[in-house]
From TrEMBL:
Keywords: Cytoplasm, Nucleotidyltransferase, Transferase. Its main location: cytoplasm. This is D-ribitol-5-phosphate cytidylyltransferase. The lineage of its organism: Eukaryota, Metazoa, Chordata, Craniata, Vertebrata. Belongs to the IspD/TarI cytidylyltransferase family. IspD subfamily. It comes from Bos indicus.
Length: 401
């Protein structure tokens, strides 16, 4: 088993984010599972996640396995890892990759500073890859930092838009029922063809649901099920909930999932995923300023005006650059009122660029002189236009003299 970088928290959303949750966001994430556990009259379980990522992407029709296909110049699997890393109560994330892609995966972990990731070799089928991930968690060897969790999440490496609330629902349901999975309404009617390719019968769509990911299980339930699997199950099966039912006699609790749980399968799905990521980038702006005490500070004025002009966009402000860059901010507006000292603003630009995520961050830098107050409205309009453009490659300086 190969280990990724040791412990720590990771990015907040599937989509651009630098590192981990801090401050209020971290506290909220860390307490969410404990709160649900308390409401259910039980303690919060230890949770790990397994991601099978050994697929070849044959249906996508491209030479690169789909989990490594770039979206905004970043591998798809990196966004999925971010989605799980943002959840502080997920202790370990096990990724099963093929031997030939092991070094590629290590490079992704290093470049994008992923935390709590361990790598295992994938099997030749999806179920064998999942089984390898479960075995890594079950071993609990003295020299391995992994320990057996109470609940394990199984998720697809190519479903990057899973949110914490869905993860929390399936984990909570699994803790109570033994197994749980996300479902969505069927989009198309399912029909059964006859041997001569004529319609035999169709299913009543309203009575059925599509099984999605994530799914969660009491670890002993799903591990015991996999240990009892036949070779046929491991070779041709795909549904983990069915294994829990067949071998552990556990009826999974089904949880309604969000529309974003779809799986990137075909080449066109890459463009849809890129569109969603760009949309999320455009939803947050942070105004960085060198003081928070002065309510008349131009940065506070700018913040209020941006809130007015950028509808449906969360606009926040802050002072500590290191703290801000760790928070969930996708667009940065820096206001430097000390024109003789550009050091703090330059630090932000350097941190974004050195993170290798700079292509995802629209950044506008304002070096303010006295005249800026008089032209604030114009400056705000320019900033609003730049952010509304959702240009994922914008890194630059807007100098208002």
């Amino acid at each position: 088993m190969e280990l990724g970088p040791p412990g720590g928290s990771g990015p907040a959303e599937p989509g651009p984010r630098l590192r981990g949750l801090r401050g209020a966001d971290a506290a909220a994430s860390a307490s969410s599972l404990s709160r649900f556990g308390a409401e259910a009259g039980c303690r919060a379980p230890a949770v790990a996640a397994v991601l099978p990522a050994g697929g070849s992407g044959e249906r996508m029709g491209v030479p690169t396995p789909k989990q490594f296909c770039p979206i905004l110049e970043r591998p798809l699997i990196s966004y999925t890892l971010q989605a799980l890393e943002r959840v502080s109560w997920i202790k370990d994330i096990i990724v099963a990759v093929t031997r030939e892609n092991m070094e590629t995966m290590k490079g992704i972990i290093q470049r994008y500073q992923h935390k709590r990731i361990s790598l295992v070799e994938a099997g030749v089928t999806r179920h064998r890859s999942i089984f390898n991930g479960l075995k890594a968690l079950a071993e609990d060897q003295p020299n391995c930092r992994l320990s057996k969790p109470e609940v394990v999440i199984i998720h697809d490496a190519v479903r990057p838009f899973v949110e914490e609330d869905v993860l929390l629902k399936v984990v909570t349901a699994a803790q109570e029922h033994g197994a749980s999975g996300a479902i969505r309404p069927l989009v198309s009617t399912v029909i059964s063809p006859s041997a001569d390719s004529c319609l035999d019968h169709s299913l009543e769509r309203a009575r059925y649901r599509a099984s999605e990911m994530p799914q969660a299980f009491l670890f002993d339930v799903i591990y015991d099920a996999y240990q009892q699997c036949s070779d046929y199950d491991l070779e041709f099966g795909t549904e983990c909930l069915h294994l829990a039912l067949k071998y552990s006699h556990i009826k999974a609790k089904l949880v309604e999932g969000s529309p974003d749980l779809w799986k990137v399968t075909y080449k066109r799905d890459l463009y849809a995923a890129e569109s969603i990521i760009k949309e999320r980038i455009s939803q947050k702006v942070c105004v960085v300023m060198d003081t928070k005490e002065d309510e008349e500070h131009v940065g506070h004025c700018l913040e209020e005006m941006l809130k007015t002009e950028l509808n449906h966009v969360k606009v926040t402000s802050g002072q500590d650059l290191q703290q801000i860059i760790l928070e969930q901010c996708y667009n940065f507006v820096c206001v430097n009122v000390m024109t003789s000292d550009f050091e703090e603003t330059q630090r932000l630009l350097n941190m974004v660029e050195e993170s290798n995520l700079s292509i995802l961050y629209p950044v506008v830098v304002i070096s303010e002189e006295q005249k800026l107050r008089e032209s604030l409205r114009q400056g705000t309009t320019i900033i609003s236009a730049l952010i509304k453009e959702r240009n994922s490659g914008l890194i630059g300086q807007l100098l208002v003299a």
